[in-house]
UniProtKB/TrEMBL annotation:
The chain crosses the membrane at residues 12-34, 273-294, 331-355, 370-393, 421-443, 455-476, 513-532, 741-769, 790-816, 836-856. It comes from Nesterenkonia jeotgali. GO terms for cellular component: plasma membrane. Residues 281-398, 747-866 form the ABC3 transporter permease C-terminal domain. Signal peptide: none annotated. The keyword Membrane applies. Its main location: membrane. It comes from the Bacteria. The keyword Nucleotide-binding does not apply. This is ABC3 transporter permease C-terminal domain-containing protein. Pfam families: FtsX (PF02687). It is found in: Cell membrane. One of its GO terms (molecular function) is transmembrane transporter activity.
Amino acid sequence: MLRVNLRSAGKKLFAAGAAVAISVAFIVAGILMVDSFNSSLTQQLEAEAAGSDLIIETVGLSAWDEETDEPLRDDVPLAEAIGELDGVAIADAIGSGYISEVAADGSTRIGFQVGEQSQTREGEIVQGREAQAEDEIVISSAAVEGRGLELGDTLSAQDFVYAEDAQEGAEPTVVQEDYTVVGVLETQGSPRGYLTAEGMDRMPFSPGPEEIRVQLDAEGDVLAVQAQIQDLITEQAAGLDEERAAGLAALEAQTTEEIVDARIAQQAGSANLLAYLAIGFGSISVFVSGLVISNTFQVLVASRVRTLALLRAIGATTGQLKRATLLEGGLLGLLGGAVGVVLGAGAALGFSAIARASFAPELPLATPTLLAALIGLGLGVTVTVLSALLPAIKAGRVAPMAALRPVGLTPGARRPSAVRIVLGLILTLGGFAAVLAAALLAAGENVPLGLPAPLVGVAGAMIGFSGVLVLARLVVPPLVAHAGALLGRVPGLRVNAPLAGQNARQVPGRTTATASALLVGVTLVGTMMVGASTAQTVLYDELAESYPVEASAAAVDGELAADLAESDLVESFTSAQGAAATVSGERGSAEGRVVLVTEETFSGVARTEGLAPATGEALVAPQLNGEVLSGDGAELELTPHGTGSSGAAEQAITVEGTVASWLPGGTVLITERTVAEVTTAHDGSAWTFEDAQGLTLIRLAQGVGPEESYGLSGLLGDHAEEFNDVGALMRASFAQVIDTVLLIVLVLLGASVLVAVIGVSNTLSLSVLERRREAALLRALGMNRRSVGQMISIEALLLASAALLIGTVLAVFLGWAGVASMVARPDWTVMVDVPWLRLAMLWGITLLAAALAALLPARALSKVEPAAGLSED
């Protein structure tokens, strides 16, 4: 009987098999990539631990000497005591600090960790030699590859020291020790440096504890020494104060295997995140595949009614018909799963190869595993068998008398039951009510059940969307029929469009299943689009509050203006004149500049309005906060000519200061009316505003990424000693993060949309079987081939439009609610931002895909000849 089913299905199962293959490939690729990342992490950690038999992590020892303000190295006496134990050859207390590259202008690059050379480490010197002198350093191969360092380069350790009697606002003394790169150690992991013990002592700051590495001699027993070390830790902790004793007592001597396992558990977050993404989006794809497969088998069973009835008439039992359908599904799942395993393994191999060539040279190539293959095959079989279960039950219920029913005569579709409607309403209203509650109450303490708002929102969205799918049979077919009638008003479509709509309404189950598969993908993609756009707007609004001007430079000259005008990083800029002044406050005084601004000064560059200070108020650079004033609302005195003894003290201006995080050092902004209130009482003004003491305000161009935005500091640094580009860097970083996340998610969700489109094509192809007599009758009544084929294409577009309409409405709501539930800030207002252009692209791509999916079915139906179609039995 299975053979009969397979013969009758023919090529009709190919699309369903493709849906299974794509879903399985998704899951398998995710599993293999997680294995690859975990393997890379394990190799790296094993390489770091190699050479030691026991390791004690001492990073948690954070006690400080109150007199010297230096860290207390309780790990050193512990290591000395461990070194005296029987069986221990070496016990090194490793400290760590940070070392940087210092440029000629005094600027530094982000540093990397440096520790002490030790015989308890394994690694080969591939260039140069080991460090021998106190001013020599060996760097890891990652520092060469990632930082571009080489032998002979100079690295510096810096500390900033304040004199004991230093006044508020005093500048620190920079203490710097330089080290010359003399060797490169071949190791895995992040950039790192290695110094001699004397080199570590030479550092201008005291290194913090990192770990104690223990190497045993030939007679040492790991477990025995491990137990003795734990006793030593307890003994030494007993002689310390409570805080230091607690830190020391928390230490644990671990074998290399234990330390590797512990560090993998700490650092496997990215791999786990990848697994969650792969499993999450793979599950979505599997769900959509289930809808497609179930729909396929339901149509197949409907097309086999006469065959099944004849089999019943000659003695086939209900169980045999059910088992044949389920076996057909199992075989489809097995074959589709096998193809998916191959595709997933190939995708993982390709991605890991790209990663090795670009950003992760030490990442192992993803290779197929037995576990991944078994999961893929098992998933394929399980999904198809479960999806074929309901069609199998229907196949078993076919009565022998159905063989006598005239061809093409099928029972009318039943109306949705009251239970289905009530259940759908409960799920929809209850689920979306939870989503709304999570969005509106996220910033308070009244989130339902006291759970995290995002968790409540996600659970509510899943429940609500399930309700939508339950009610879809009540909504989608009439919606498609009405849309067909509306489209029928277009000249040339007055017959085809209404017929297409009514055809979809005649088979509500198939119509709903096909539209639901598309609805899942459309809703998810749309939700991510709306959510990303809304999140971007919220973050940009917050950035606009903190950094209304994204960059500013304490300079006004023609060369700077010319460079800004030519730069692709700058959208617009403006300038204002300033005057040298002494800025005095409750905490001291500093030389700076007072810049005269109006609302027009900020026009075209500021992200917010009303930025100019009011009369008697001033905006103050953050560098002056703590040095001159103590926070917003403090009183400042501004004396012209840069000195308080210039004879112009009587024209000093008293203002109330507000810190502006976007201003360059030493800058104060005031308005002309604030100056006028002081100068009008004198014969001449002591305030002279000119370009030499002016300020240039800059607005970042759209689409600038983080790497590009760093170029702005170089441009401004060529013209000004003081500038502030923090707002530009943050805006560019936020934009890239959101765009990157959106791109990744859309690519992942694209798989579910692809599966849904395959389902549309499959459903329409199978429906051709049921419509051969209908098409033949229409041809006999005068409809041409083009119009018959057009009817199928219109039906596909109507189904896609219904899914797009419902999915877009849900996406707008869920996208806004998702962001609102995650923000959880009472001072942030989340207003939905609908990305109309992106949604229009989603509509266009989905409709185009639906039209292409209908191409072959439409062609097949248009080829039905009137005589052949009407004579079929």
